[in-house]
């Protein structure tokens, strides 16, 4: 009988073996530390069985990986659409009265259409199964319901012009994504501004960030990497990024001109699609 291997277990097991070998720790030694058999640990690394959450902190201690094993496990094997480190931020956004977000590379998740989201998720990890991709896409779409809730937050978004022009998923996907941005930006609580290519003094060179305001609480700064997210409530840090966001809005096109640019780029993608079909 062929043993069925869960692709999530396999991805985690492969990374676990890599970290163990990098640390110079044998399977026998790690198995003893976990009080499991060497054959069981081998099965975990092969993806033939899952790794219990109870083992993660001990593995991190033995391999001296500083929490990396737990982060990998949460990202690769969680059944939820969002990793553990993002769920608190997702809940915070649902309580927010205002969200300010800047991104120089991608359309933010709250504004992604389904086709664009699918492309980005697949590019982020080509080893995801179709089921995992579908879970994450649905999670992202569900998260956007906060924009159509009875009391939605004020959403202020600044994007680089390159975000509009980078052809993720091809011309058809980008035309649909830009149509979605135009639709959403018609809502009174959504403002999208574009920093044009020609901007010489660009204040957003440090990368993407999000500022979240919840009534009665200090403002939160959220910074995200490929494998983790960091909420920051230290006043000086929040104030600095708040200043940068103000400067970004200052160099960005006004909302009406930004919509005109989105319309223009959408037309270019549609024309490119028609040329490809000719």
TrEMBL record:
Domain HTH cro/C1-type: 16-72
Single annotated GO MF: DNA binding
Any Pfam family the entry gives: HTH_31
Name assigned to this protein: Transcriptional regulator with XRE-family HTH domain
